[in-house]
Amino acid sequence: MKILVANLGSTSFKYRLFEMGEGEEDLLAEGGYERVGDYGKVIRDALSTMEESGAIGSQEEIEVVGFKTVLGRNLSGCVEAGDEVLEALEGFAEVAPAHNPAYAAGIRQFSEILPGARRVALFETAFYQWVSEAGRRYAVPKGWHEAGIQRHGFHGASHKFVAERSAELLGRRDVAQGVQRLYQDGPVETERPLRVISCHLGGSSSVTGIRSGVAIGTSMGFSPQSGLPQNNRVGDLDSGVIPYVMKSLGLSVEEIERQLTKESGLLGVSGAGNDLRDVRAAATGGDADAKLALELLIHETRRWASSFLFELGGLDGFVFTAGIGENHPWLREAVCAGLEEFGLVLDHAKNEGCRGEEGEISAESSKVKVFVIPANEELVLAREVYRKVSVLN
Ligand code: AMP
Known about the structure:
alpha/beta, Nucleotidyltransferase, domain 5, 2 domains, six-stranded mixed sheet, 12 strands, 42% helix, 17% strand, globular, binds adenosine monophosphate
């Protein structure tokens, strides 16, 4: 079954075409466009390119288009991308302005250009459907809650992949199989719990606590401007700051929003850039602000990781994923420092040697196993979409 995974940003369109089947996962084509003004034009162009390269014999061969949608109002999960999804995306366009309007436009375009293909949306919030009410609730007035103000959580595809792969690496096939079927069957009881903390550290970062393959909580909340400091976005911020800044600095809501989403995070603190490599280079060169930005990222990663420990009641696996988590051993070392008492000990040589690939980086003696698991969100999406469509057929 040929599945096209569409990744849409406010001015970008990226795609990967997979051949999916039982025991079969092949990447047939990939490509992308920047500075997109007309999604229809680039989608048509991408389809022609796939035909010309021989990746597809004809456009009708594409059976499903999968969309990695961010969040929808009153809707989550892995669902057919029809009117309900469009309404949910548009209902929360303000919360994810770079993505929701783009996905709504992309879904509409695909329904015109490939009318015979099924469309499936996997919301980034889907993995958090089973977080407890207390874990999702903000202590806001009821009316706000009813208007959708709650913790949603993001990076669901990535953390779910970690849940499945870490269970396999920890010898828990029962949990791994439960994760595979999670969106179809819901959580299933396991005899023994498996307790994992997943750190997705990249341009955008979050930490998720996972019990037996099911998320119990995550660092991101209502919008992606929450949790850990991001590349250029703020992360957690006391709600009292906004009215104070409006009054004392005379900033408008729009200006505050712009600064918190474009000039904050690693960039805002370091002034050295929003790529960790640049911040690290500046810190190594003696820049105190850059050094502080790194310390802040490490501090917040540890703070969020530790926040799930009590609820999990212990830890079996600790995982690093995404661009920063996969490629920066020094940061993993700093996140894991001084945890020997909790049974978490890194193997320094293994940690140093593991860059951009899967590996176990904990010492033989470590009770908690530490892994690097590379993220591949498009493949995760293709898998989920394949599972969804296989159930529908
Ligand atoms: P992501 O959003 O997962 O692509 O992660 C982006 C972040 O990961 C940036 O801050 C980069 O510094 C870092 N990163 C991604 N790839 C590499 C790499 N090959 N080597 C070092 N850092 C990387």
